[in-house]
Amino acid sequence: MPPPPPQIIRVVDLETTGPAPPAHGVCEIGWQDVALGADGRWDLQGEGGARLVNPGRPIPPVTQAIHHILDEQVANEPLWHDVARAVLDPWPRRVALAAHRADYEMKFCTPALTHNAQWICTWKCALRLWPDSPSFSNQVLRYWRKPEGMEHERGLPAHRAFPDSYVTAFHLRDMLNEAGVAQLIEWSNLPGLLPAVRQGPDRGKNWHEISDESLAVQLGDRDVDVRFSAETELARRRGGGAVGRQTPQGRLFED
């Protein structure tokens, strides 16, 4: 009997004309697979890839200034619905899809195109696993963490679909080896748990350092991640868990 196909998680990254479909469209998709090895460890697999997509509308100068994709480069490329399914639902069947700030990709990669795939958001998982990072962008995590095995030039230029998916794949690999698939999916299905207060007079403080009055203000914030983090801190104060950066002493109690 041939061995079963490996478990695959496909990391994807999109370059688009803007953030809000259907008003905006995809102009490039990139991907890089991460696979579970026979030794029980996850690692990058294959060369990955990218392809340009005709977004069906002009690319605004504001977004061209980010990814530098020109209208004439995509004019003769296939449309998104002719490209998406083959990339998002490959064979061997992937366990999940992943992206950095996956909520953005999920707006374009609908359940019909992904065969109802589960998603891992490496941004949300980084908040949980690496709360001491100075920032949680894909590129800051890259230079703060310096993932083993990453080829510097292969991850450039930033803000293009393949290089960004390649960089994200290294974050995902290390997250999977630290926490596992089920835990990453669970975290990804919740709002982001911010390790510190994002704005206001308490900006940069750990949640446990702010007053009850300040916490009440954060509970009314319009941002879902801020509210969720404040609600989690409120639950901690009422005896229901922890939020924010752990102290070394706290980690000892967990171990």
UniProtKB/TrEMBL annotation:
Organism: Sphingomonas alpina
GO molecular function: 3'-5' exonuclease activity; nucleic acid binding
Residues making up the signal peptide according to the UniProt record: none
Gene Ontology biological process: DNA replication proofreading
Domain of life: Bacteria
Domain Exonuclease: 8-181
A Pfam family of this chain: RNase_T
UniProt protein name: 3'-5' exonuclease
GO cellular component: cytosol
Keywords (A to Z) from UniProt: Exonuclease, Hydrolase, Nuclease
